[in-house]
Amino acid sequence: MEEKENIHQGVEASMSFLETSRKKNNKVENKRRFSDEQIRSLECIFESESKLEPRKKMQLARDLGLQPRQVAIWFQNRRARWKSKRIEQEYRKLKVEYDNLASMFQSLKEEKESLQSEVQKLSYMVETSHDGGREAKENSTEDGGSGNAYGNCMAETKERFSNEGLEDRMVIYSDDQNERGLTRTEKVDDRGNELLRNEEIPLTALEKWYNVDPSVILDQTCSSSQWLDFWT
DNA sequence: ACCGAATGCTCAGTTACGTCA
DNA sequence: GCTGACGTAACTGAGCATTCG
């Protein structure tokens, strides 16, 4: 009963619309909104099919007391509204994903910076201990060749490092258990062991694990800013 | 088979009206 | 009552597919 009244109301609205809709310049003079019932029916059909076949359009127009053109325009506008809503939803979803990635990138960036400064610190420590070795070697020649154990050890190691590959360096340490190793052991007892444990091993380990020179890592990570620029 | 006009549909963009705070 | 924002019915023009002579 109420439904029929609604449709009747809609039909009346549509009829008055048709009678008075067009005047000068083809402009709509008295635009009427569709009734709730008309909208409900249109929405109901739109849910199952967003495009209407011509026959269905005619039938629906008859049922709702509208012109087929009005039904076609309603579907057209409804598709447009649906599309803009969908674009809005997709935008929101992408924004959330972007924000998550951006914050993940930020924390990775901070972690990278802290690791870089740690590597720099370690490099500095290694460098200063190498310099200390050279000083020690110089001192040892001065006191007649008997020498400073730490200085000899470091000077020898440094020299080998500059001439040989990483694998060779590892062999040197294992070979030191032979006759040469013995003399070294004697000498190394006071300071050398501590040095190797605390400073040399971390460096060689670092080089072995990454198979690169730490200073190169620093240079590369700092300079390869193409993708970094993208984010910042 | 090919061509061009007519027709009908969709879409993006725009206009204009109705409603509401 | 006036006004600006907003939602929406309707229009416009372009592009595309189909039909028909």
UniProtKB/TrEMBL annotation:
GO terms for molecular function: DNA-binding transcription factor activity, RNA polymerase II-specific; transcription cis-regulatory region binding. Residues 1-32, 128-149 are annotated as: Disordered. SUPFAM superfamilies: Homeodomain-like. GO terms for cellular component: nucleus. InterPro entries: HD, HDZip_class_I_plant, Homeobox_CS, Homeodomain-like_sf, HTH_motif, Leu_zip_homeo. Keywords: Coiled coil, DNA-binding, Homeobox, Nucleus, Transcription, Transcription regulation. It is found in: Nucleus. Residues 77-125 form a coiled coil. Pfam families: HALZ, Homeodomain. Residues 27-86 bind DNA. Its main location: nucleus. Residues 25-85 form the Homeobox domain. GO terms for biological process: positive regulation of DNA-templated transcription; response to abscisic acid; response to water deprivation. Residues 20-32, 128-140 have a biased composition (Basic and acidic residues). SMART domains: HOX. Belongs to the HD-ZIP homeobox family. Class I subfamily. Transcription factor. Probable transcription activator that may act as growth regulators in response to water deficit. PANTHER family: HOMEOBOX-LEUCINE ZIPPER PROTEIN. This is Homeobox-leucine zipper protein. It comes from Pisum sativum.
